Amino acid sequence: MVNVPSPHEELALLDRELAWLDTRRTHLLARRAWLLGVVRGPMVGAMAEAAGPVAGPARAWAAGGPPGAGGGGGETSPRGVRDVLLTLGGVLLAVAAVAFTVVGWGRLGVGGRTAVLAVVTAGALGSPVLLLRRGLRATAEAVGAVGLVLTVLDAYALRQVTDLEVGALGYAAAASAVLAAGWAGYGAALGALRAPLPAAVAAAQLPLPLFAATVDPRPLTVAWALLTTAAVNTGLALAGRLPMAVRVAACAGACATGGWAVLLAGGYAVVGAGAEPGALLLAAGGLALAGAWRALWGRTGWAVPAGVLLVAGAGVLLRLVAPQGWAVAAWLPPALALAAVAVRGGLPRAVARGLCWAAAGVQALLVGVWALPLVAAGLTGLGAQVPWAAVAVLVTVAAAAAVGRSLETRLGALAVGWLALVALPSAAGLSLWAALAGWLGVVAVFLAGAVRPGWPRYGVRVEEPVPGGAAPWWAPRTPEWVLGTAALALAVGAALVAVWAAVPSQVGAVVALTALTALTGLFAGAAMLQGPGGRQSVAAGVAVLAAAGAVAAGARAAELPAHLTGLALLLVPAATAGVGALLRRRPVAVVVEAVGAGVAVVALGCAATEGAALALALGLAGVVAAATAVRPERRPVAGYAAAALLVAAVWVRLAVWGVSVPEAYTLPVAVPALAVGALRRRRDPAASSWAAYGPGLALGLLPGLVAVWGEGGALRPLLLGAATLAVTLAGARLRLVAPLVLGGAVLALTALHELAPYVVQAVGVLPRWVPPALAGALLLAVGATYERRLGEVRRMRQALRRMG
Length: 804
Hints:
80% helix, 804 residues, 31 helices
């Protein structure tokens, strides 16, 4: 039989065991600290023994680690500390050397100067040899860097103590050449040092430009020297056997010197300094292209500036022989030639891609920065007619882009071709009617392309449908959809141009808008034959707007006033209602009727300038809405709109007639509302009387009640009381809540209004203590009733408790 201890006994046993383990751990930790002190030294041992069972930081110190929390690592590595110290020491030495050379040089004689230069420089340059033999490479790097700085100071000091018949630029060129050669030799001799060779490359950037500035101070001469230096740097950067640091320094030097050369050449090309800037840009482009060809990475990134420089240089040269007005267009042939070479020249793919991007970028700049503002100024009348050079550039760019096989190039060709066609009438100086015919022809052409764009069959990749079910009609799924939508947008743009140009001529505006209505309507019909889509909805909406514009333009040509123009505009929503009835449940029907409703709002705004015309317009609009409400799918919206419009028409007509009786405004609405409620109750006996009769009763009774209390009189209270009595009796007879409650409430309030003077008179006769007494009695009665109810609730609670 096994004896199981009780929980209290087991808990006491566990507490004793844990206390023994804590004591044992403390003893072992103290013993470990003492042993570490014996092994690593008496001082550490004494500290550990005195500390005894200390916490983490003391144990870490005793173990030989850093005094961080828990013995964790420091914030930096020993190598990092070494590098910081060596760098700081080298900088301080260099600063001291500069201060000594500049400030204290004059205090020594010629011998002292020579001795100091020789000893310090030789020591700084020779010390790395001994340091490298001892394995102190980082220290050798720091001392060698100080030695390089000292050689620069030596060159400066030599210029100060000698009387050379050489200018400052010439001496700087020679000194930088000597320093570059010396540093290169020093770095080659001590291959373990990494600083001398990149420093030599950096110093080599100066000799040739400084020498060129000494011989011929013209900026273009300096630019040629900079470009030559960039060529040398490019060769060094592409040399595979050189260290990476040298190649990186050479690449940076090529970018710097080549960039300065290009900036100088570009500045002189802008001001027109002849052919030399163009040749310089061509040379820079060729150098960049060679670098892109031989580069191991980033070929496309190097090829883009190369292509831009080649096109810029060739354009500068062609500009010299271009006719007047065609100077900017001279950059287009080089861009096209570059694109052709990139596509057919057998270049590496990355290089060809970069050149194509460069050619496309130049063409985009010519179109967007130069041609587009000229076309916009010519079409808006803010400038002269569009120059033929701009049209030629647009046509050429569009033709070149149309050759491409990607969707992006086809879209670019579409947009640029549209811009050229739109600008053509202005460039040709055509008359208004001829220009309108041309722009309407552009609209027709692009609408025809939007119906069935055939370009994707000639190389544009058709994307696969998105898995997971049918996509919405507006989702772009194929390039054909994108091209068709773009063509439709451009057709709308051409239509806007035609309308803008035709606005000054009243007849021209009517003709243009009528033609646009016909063209967009035909396009919408043709697009509907192909199935549902967003383009047909857009075209249908534009057709409705064009029709409204044509009506408005015709009214303006007939010199009709604003209210008659509004009545004429109502023809458009009436027509859209008929078209919507024909289209039924197609998505385009919603767009057509919605735009027609917007035109109706504008028409009502125009008719509001004359009261009778506004009443007539509201009535006509209400009739159109009522006719639309006959269709089941439009009944929820059109029915309410028709009721509101017809009521507003009646109210406006009454206001025009000067009627101020409120019942004249409310009863014509209340009676039909009650009739509709009766029909609803007959069809649906379960319908609430509030929903069926509430709106009509409220509209017929409440305004009269407000008038009774506000104006008084004898006839209105009598008629209102009789009507409410009849309504109340009818509600009681038919057992309908809404007539009973509304009729009774209005009847009581009307009677109260009639009896109010007598009540006030009677209250005035009573003593003054009667009203407070009556109020007190009422409050006592209410309080007693409330207390009785509380007692009943208390007794119910007790009964429930006894039951539980």
